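hi! just following up on the protien thing from before. the input was this:
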Amino acid sequence: MGHKEQQKFRKWLIQIREEFVWATCYFKVWEQLWPSTEEIANVENRYINFFQLTRQALNDQFTLHLSKILDRHKDSINIFRIINMAEKHPGLLENTALDTQELTNKLNRNEEVFKRLKSLRDKKLVHVDERFYTNDDLRKSIHVYVGEVRTLLNELAEILTNISVAHNGTIPTFETIGIDDTTELLTTLSSMRDEK
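and the predicted 3d structure came back as:
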């Protein structure tokens, strides 16, 4: 395997892992901002414009970053191209026991979720589709459920870990420091309100 192919594979893998970390961070912060308790709902209602806009922005960014990983466009660097490259050039991997077909099958099981995420990206974030005048029209037509997203993120983390381990023996981490700051912020805002 040529040095150039090794460099390209390593670079692509790093780029996809970075996109995955961004997608995961946006999703986790969005999740923490969900009004899951009365206390959180009260804080968010007090600062409703800020929190509604923030939740929407986080959701949009999550969708965009995840779409980059799953986009099958021929010119995009995506998870499918990385798996295909590993399959066609097993010399890229230190551990050739990686079952690329199983990874592809795992991704294909989520194909319907990918299509819905792509529709959301294309019809809402990239341009406004004339058939969907409002966000409610779009949401009624295209549903992407939180549980589906959690499953997809867990499976992508597992796939990226398997590829990284097979490539050079490293186990990546997708956790970031301070990801729970949002919960702490909401608690602080709530306690400040109670002190008044």
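The chain has a mean pLDDT of 87.
The chain has one domain: 3-169.
cheers
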